[in-house]
Design a protein that fits this description.
Length: about 230
């Protein structure tokens, strides 16, 4: 294959933000660079993996859209998410107000303060971490999935589209769809689709990487008076 058709082994570094030491913020306007039509799905997946392999952590604003296929009902949530290797994450919801999903890499907590309840689960058994493990420094897109390019139109016309199918059957989800920024291989949107075609989509904006958040950000203890529900 012509070398010009290969993505760079190391995607371009994100622009440094002088206001945050050792932090990077992506400032490229969406769609500012047209994607290379010659790149294969495997090359793009390798570029995405390379980007997240070079980050120790990242934080972003998110909008989550959860659609139930049987009823076509969609709920929309938003907030701020943080990931830190290995396997740590923290989702703080602005809507629904105060809801929190947090994991220390082993235990997953979901806190609903309005109901004064929290759900405790094993992280490995949750759909979201399993599908998006590459964001948390575990898993590998090239070895864990088969990749297929999908056409992008409209506002995403200048992005790469990837459909990823687990190589080993997974009870939590059947497909993962990524919309990828062509300049640095960062994921702009991720969609998790299960066998019933229910969709859980996340759009990420205002992303910063390598902020080095304290490990304590990913530890959580239920407040007094909280009902803890376990599987």
């Amino acid at each position: 294959m012509d070398a010009s058709a290969r993505p760079p082994a190391t995607p371009p570094q994100a622009t440094r933000d002088a206001g945050v030491a050792d932090a990077a913020v992506v400032v490229v306007p969406p769609g500012a660079s047209a994607p290379n039509r010659a790149y294969t799905a495997e090359q793009i997946a390798a570029g995405v993996q390379s980007f997240y392999n070079r980050t120790t952590d990242f934080a972003a604003d998110f909008v989550q859209r959860n659609r139930v296929a049987a009823t076509n009902n969609e709920t929309v949530s938003s907030g701020r998410v943080e990931f830190r290797r290995p396997g740590r994450m923290r989702w703080e919801y602005a809507q629904p107000v105060g809801n929190l999903v947090v994991s220390d890499g082993t235990t997953l907590w979901t806190h609903e303060p309005a109901r004064r309840q929290a759900f405790q689960a094993n992280l490995a058994q949750s759909q979201l971490p399993t599908a998006l493990s590459f964001l948390m420094g575990s898993g590998n897109l090239s070895t864990d999935f088969t990749a297929r390019r999908i056409p992008m139109t409209g506002r995403w016309a200048n992005f790469y589209g990837l459909e990823l199918t687990p190589r080993a059957p997974n009870p939590s989800f059947s497909r993962l769809v990524l919309i990828v920024e062509p300049q640095n291989y960062q994921v702009a949107e991720a969609g998790v689709i299960d066998a019933q075609n229910n969709q859980n989509r996340f759009a990420f904006t205002n992303t910063r990487v390598n902020l080095n958040p304290p490990v304590s950000r990913f530890q959580w203890t239920p407040p007094a008076g909280t009902t803890v529900i376990r599987p």
